[in-house]
Amino acid sequence: MKVVIIEDEFFSAEKLSNQLQRIDDSIEILAILPSVESCLDWFRNNPEPDLIFSDIQLEDQESFELFRQLPIEAPIIYTTAFDQYALHAFKQNSIDYLLKPIDLDELRSAIKKYENLEYRLLKKGLKLQPEKPKEGFKERFLVKKGSQLAVIRTSDVAYFKSDQKLSFLITFDNQRYVIEQTLDQLMDQLDSRKFNRISRNRLISLEAIYKIHNHFNGRLKLELNPPEEEEVYVSRDRVPQFKEWLDS
Asked: Burial code of 3-38, b = ≥16 C-beta within 10 A, e = fewer?
């Protein structure tokens, strides 16, 4: 994995470099860039990296200006001491948003999110690049993450489930969040080509299906990614439309 770090604080850049090496010593850091001006010069004269780690407040201006000026397609993980930029960040090619000081486990989770996205697209023969908005369908969810708020892209959602009158969103890297929408509401907000209501309490992404097994009494048993602790079934009355969905 080839990485560029956009960071104007020397010690923050050094710490991030060391953390990346601890996680995977094969990660190659192509450049550490402290300003929008230096970024413009570098990106105009070099191939894009696989992944960008970017602070927001740089020594000359906000890094958002770089992405306004250049059509950079590489995914971005934002690293900043401030949380007020989260919504703006996710309008860029962002796949995660990490607050300083960066926790090693959260950094590892962010890299795993990138790797999962890359793997899913490579299976389809596609290049890793930002998804174009699908008009009319929900593109992101605002969720609580501890004492903070986070934005989760719909493309990162493996499945939704309801339990005890609560609705949960589960991502491909197995992060779980409570959301306000009911599954009935989600049915009207999501692309039905990508999400299917397999039972009264579960709505899944096509990309989350790992294996399908015939089961007793006409039901189908699913293995999902990420795996669930409980067994997951397509209810008998939904099996015909589920098969039609898979074959469409």
From this structure: bbbbbbbeebbeebbebbeebeeebebbebbbbbeb
Q: Indicate the average pLDDT of the chain.
A: 86
- What is the DSSP track for the chain? -EEEEE-S-HHHHHHHHHHHHHH-TT-EEEEEE-SHHHHHHHHHHS---SEEEE-SB-SSSBTHHHHHHS---S-EEEEES-STTHHHHTTTTEEEEEESSPPHHHHHHHHHHHHHHHHHHHHTT----PPPP-TTS--EEEEEETTEEEEEEGGGEEEEEEETTEEEEEETT--EEEES--HHHHHHHS-TTTEEEEETTEEEEGGGEEEEEE-GGG-EEEEESSPPSS-EEE-GGGHHHHHHHHT-
Task: Answer whether residue 87 shows pLDDT above 70.
Answer: no
Contact assessment for residue 2 and residue 30, using Cβ atoms and an 8 Å cutoff = yes
Tokens encoding 136: 């009319």
Rounded Cα distance between 98 and 105, Å, is 11
> Tell me: the pLDDT tens digits for 153-193?
999 999 999 998 899 999 999 999 999 999 999 998 999 99
Each residue's pLDDT tens digit, 5-32:
999 999 999 999 999 999 999 999 999 9
Query: Is-contact 117 157, C-beta < 8 A?
Result: no
